[in-house]
Amino acid sequence: MIRVLLADDQELVRDGFAMILDAQDDVEVVASAADGAEAVERVQATIPDVVLMDVRMPGVDGIEATRRLRAGGFERLGILMLTTFDLDEYVYEALRAGASGFLLKDVPRATLVDAVRVIAAGDALFAPAITRKLIERYVAGPRVSDAPPPELAELSERERDVLLCVVRGRSNAEIAADLYVSEATVKTHVAAVLRKLGVRDRVQAVVWAYETGVVRPGG
């Protein structure tokens, strides 16, 4: 079972998501919270696999709650941020704080359930085009240096290909088809890329690629 904690200051949102997720055979909502501080406490008490975390909440918001959870040792906890706005200025900060990805609150039921499963499997959700818009909006400034980042030299040519596919939001299956390799091989390459870049997951790898100028918005 995938254990899920819901953190949102709107009770109707929590109840609606709980109804959708509890209807799945492989998902169980184990707790809910009305703000970030309560979310941190409930995570410590229930040890869920995935947290659906609203970005904007009174008091301790989702970004700060995410920072506290990562700093508190919950590095492998899946944190899926939820937002009402397709260009929420807080989402990029949430990704930098350690979120595993994000969704709009008005996504179809099937998309919500699939997202929970993706995050629970240890992957990061970077498929939505809106995530690309956010990163392009916030890291489109000039590069600090024209020199390539030293980490890039650590990647093999194939690992660089895989990194570019990840930046484009391609899934493992899609990358495998693009590069004519198996999904198992893709997983191996992705793991190597993350390790060599010193990042936690695919989302952080994408942020790294844009911030270092390895990839330019629109390029």
TrEMBL record:
Pfam families with a match to the protein in the record: GerE, Response_reg
Keyword Transcription regulation: yes
Cross-referenced InterPro entries: CheY-like_superfamily, NreC/VraR/RcsB-like_REC, Sig_transdc_resp-reg_C-effctor, Sig_transdc_resp-reg_receiver, Tscrpt_reg_LuxR_C, WalR-like
UniProt-listed PROSITE patterns: HTH_LUXR_1 (PS00622), HTH_LUXR_2 (PS50043), RESPONSE_REGULATORY (PS50110)
Gene Ontology terms for molecular function: DNA binding
Keyword Manganese: no
Location of 4-aspartylphosphate modifications: 54
Start and end residues of each Response regulatory domain: 3-120
Ranges of residues in domain HTH luxR-type: 148-213
Biological processes annotated in GO: phosphorelay signal transduction system; regulation of DNA-templated transcription
UniProt keywords, alphabetically: DNA-binding, Phosphoprotein, Transcription, Transcription regulation
Superkingdom of the organism of origin: Bacteria
PANTHER family assigned to the protein according to its UniProt record, in alphabetical order: TRANSCRIPTIONAL REGULATORY PROTEIN NARL-RELATED, TWO-COMPONENT RESPONSE REGULATOR
Protein name as it appears in the record: Response regulator containing a CheY-like receiver domain and an HTH DNA-binding domain
Organism of this sequence: Gaiella occulta
